[in-house]
Each structure stands twice: as structure tokens, then as C-alpha cells.
Design goal:
Number of strands: 0
Order of helices and strands: HHHHHHH
Helix content: 55-70%
Radius of gyration: 17 Å
Number of helices: 7
Largest sheet: none
Distance between the termini: 21 Å
Structural class: mainly alpha
Shape: globular
Strand content: under 5%
CATH class: Mainly Alpha
């Protein structure tokens, strides 16, 4: 089995994502976007954030950018005080929480490694695809998401 962390790093390099500078807005919005996937009240949240008419597009991607934009204001005092240590700690904490979430879903370390490899294999379909305005790889036509394989993995839980 592939080391999932090594495979994820290879994907990031192959996709040209690892050579970008750290961007607090983007990194935060990517984490928020993933956290918002699957919720049904995205339009409501978008309306609350914009405080007027419903957004024309209310996807986790759009709402995550709105949340990050509201939280990260380069004009506010303290923004420049975010250090690389803070950024690394935040990224590590996200992984620790994600692993804890996967354990709560009934996976042990082997199952977590399998899940990461499944998602990374699906992500490799995005290599050489165009990027959106924020630099995130777009899904190709006919993209086959990892959900069926992840469901199979979950069905194998003890």
C-alpha cells in the first residue's frame, strides 16, 4: 500500500500546487470549503454573510471564500502577525482533527491510510486540468469521485 502522505505530497507537486506561496485566505477557505460539503443550508449561510439578496451561486466553494474573506482582512491590525509557525500549527491541527473524525467513523490507522489513498487516486484525475480563479484544480468531465470506494471501505468496518 502506498504511504498516503507521500502520495498526497506527490499529487500536490505533480499538480503544481506545492510550489505556490502560502496564502492565508486560500488555505483557510479550502479547509472551510471541505467542512461545508454536504450541508443543505449553504444558500442560507450565503445570505447571512452577504446580508442582502441571495447569492447567485451558493456552493461550499463560494461560501468558504466569503467566510475566509470576512475572517481575514489584510487591513486589520494583527493580520501581519500570523507566522509560519501559526500556519503550520493550524495545518497540523486540521490533520489531527480529520484523523479523529475518521476514527469516530470506525476506521483504524489502516483504514485511514486506505481512505487517504482512495481520495488521492480520485484527485489524480484532476492533474493537468485548468485551475479556478483561486488556483484550485477543476474536476474533469466524467470525474469519478471517491465516494463509492469510500462507502465500500466503510461497509467493511468491524
Amino acid at each position: 500500500m502506498n504511504n498516503p502522505i507521500k502520495a498526497i505530497c506527490k499529487f500536490q507537486s505533480d499538480a503544481g500546487l506545492a510550489d505556490k506561496d502560502y496564502d492565508d485566505f486560500l488555505e483557510s477557505s479550502f479547509q472551510i470549503e471541505e467542512a461545508l460539503e454536504g450541508f443543505n443550508s449553504i444558500e442560507y449561510l450565503a445570505k447571512l454573510l452577504t446580508e442582502d439578496e441571495m447569492c447567485t451561486e451558493s456552493s461550499p466553494k463560494v461560501v468558504s471564500r466569503m467566510i475566509a474573506d470576512a475572517a481575514i482582512d489584510e487591513n486589520l491590525v494583527g493580520y501581519e502577525d500570523i507566522t509560519d509557525v501559526d500556519r503550520l500549527d493550524k495545518a497540523c491541527d486540521a490533520i489531527v482533527f480529520a484523523i479523529g473524525s475518521m476514527m469516530k467513523l470506525g476506521l483504524d490507522h489502516h483504514g485511514i491510510a486506505k481512505a487517504l489513498n482512495i481520495v488521492n487516486r480520485a484527485n489524480t484525475q484532476k492533474l493537468n486540468m485548468p485551475k479556478d480563479e483561486y488556483g484550485k484544480l477543476m474536476k474533469p468531465e466524467g470525474f469519478e469521485g471517491p465516494e463509492p470506494e469510500l462507502q465500500k471501505l466503510l461497509d467493511e468496518r468491524k
